Amino acid sequence: METDAFHPGLAEDTLLESAQNLYRLFVSGESRFLYACLSKGFDPSIGIVAESSFTIMAVYKALKRRSDFRGYANTSSEALALFSRSKPGIACIVESGSQCLYGDVIEFVSASCPCTRSILFLSSLQALDHSPASRADAIVAEKDVFLPINPVYQGLMALIAGTVYRSPSVVRYLEESPVALDSPSPDRLVLGLRDQQLLEAYVLGLSNREVAEKLSLSVRTVQTYSGQLLQRLGVNNRQKAILRAIELGISFVPKYFRGTSN
Predict the structure, then answer these.
(1) Residues 194/256, Cβ–Cβ less than 8 Å
(2) 199 CB-near residues (< 8 Å, 6+ apart)
(3) Distance CA 194, CA 214 (A)
(4) Are 153 and 48 contained in the same domain?
(5) pLDDT tens-digit series, residues 107-145
(6) For residue 81, what are the domain limits?
(7) Are residues 203 and 182 in the same domain?
(8) Which CATH number do you get for residue 212?
(9) Exposed, middle or buried, 147 (CB in 10 Å: 0-12/13-18/19+)?
(10) Is position 262 within any domain?
(11) pLDDT tens, residue by residue, 189-244
C-alpha cells in the first residue's frame, strides 16, 4: 500500500489524538493474538473500513505484519467489493460517529463471508441503536481502551475462538437499550464480563462465596451467573467448563483475582 494515497484533512492535534487512540485500540493485543493465530490456524489478514483516511492509516501503521493488510475502504460499496474480492480473516470496521455508516457491511460479512470475522470499534455507543452494528463478532468501545482487561485483546481472541465479544460499556448499553436489537448468530458464543470472571475463578478454584465476596455480589447471584455460563458452554460442571473454554481458544490470564491463592 502506498502511504501517499492518504490525505488527512483534520487539525494536527486531532490527528495525533486519533493516531494514539487507534494505536491503543489495536496494537496493544496484537502480538499475543498473532501467536494464537499460528496455534489455531486462524487467518490474521485484515481489511480496514473507516470514514477517515487518517484513521485507516493509523490502523495500518499499527500492524506488526504489513503483509497481512488486504486493503481499505471509505464507503460501504468499496467495502463490499473489498471483502468480496480479498476475503480477509478480519474485517476491522471503525464507526467514528453516532450513526452506523457501515451496517450493510457488517451484515454482508456476517451472512456472506464465512471465513471473515468482524471487529467493530465505536467512538459513540449510539451507533448501537442501529441493529446491524450489534451483529459484529467483536465490539469495542473507544471509552473502554484504558481498562485493565484489555478489551482489544479479548475481542481479537474471541475472533479466533468463534465467540462473540462486547467490551464492558457496550454490554451495559445493550442491556439498557429499549430498542430491540439483532442477536448474535446462534452458533457464536457470547462471553460477557461476568463469564470471564467466573472462568478465571474456576481455574483458581475459588468457591461461590469467595467469588461473591471479591465481586461484591450475593452468593445466590454468583450461583445464577455460574449456572447460566455452564448452560451456554453446554457442560454441567466447572472442570468441563474450563476444558470447553480451552477448546474455544479462550486464554486464562489473571485479570480479576490477582494475588488470590487457591
Answers:
(1) no
(2) 191, 229, 241, 242, 245, 250, 252
(3) 12
(4) yes
(5) 898 888 888 999 999 989 988 887 788 889 999 998 887
(6) 10-190
(7) no
(8) 1.10.10.10
(9) middle
(10) no
(11) 666 778 878 888 888 889 999 999 988 889 999 999 999 888 878 889 988 888 88
Report if residue 161 sits inside a domain.
yes
Q: How far is residue 163's CA from residue 97's CA, in Å, rounded to a whole number?
A: 26
The answer on 214 and 94 residing in a single domain is no
Number of domains the chain contains: 2
Residues 178 and 201 occupy one common structural domain: no
Q: In 74-206, which ranges are E strands?
A: 90-95, 117-122, 138-141, 163-166, 189-190
Residue type, 131: S
CA separation for the pair 86, 68 (Å, rounded): 11
Contacts for 74 with CB less than 8 Å, ≥ 6 apart: 49, 50, 51, 53, 56
Cβ 157 vs Cβ 44: under 8 Å: no
Q: Is residue 238 included in any domain, yes or no?
A: yes
- For residue 122, the tally of other CB atoms under 10 A from its CB is 27
Residues 143 and 208 in one domain: no
Same domain membership, residue 19 and residue 104: yes
Question: How far is residue 188 from each of residues 173, 197, 237, measured CA to CA in Å?
Answer: 20, 19, 21
Q: Using the CB atoms, write b or e for 191-229: b if 16+ within 10 Å.
A: bbbbbbbbbbbbbbebebebbbeebebeeeebeebbeeb
Residue with cell 460499556: 169
5 in any annotated domain:
no
Residues 81-96 have pLDDT tens digits of 999 999 899 999 999 8
- Please write the tens of the pLDDT for every residue from 156-177: 888 887 778 888 888 888 877 6
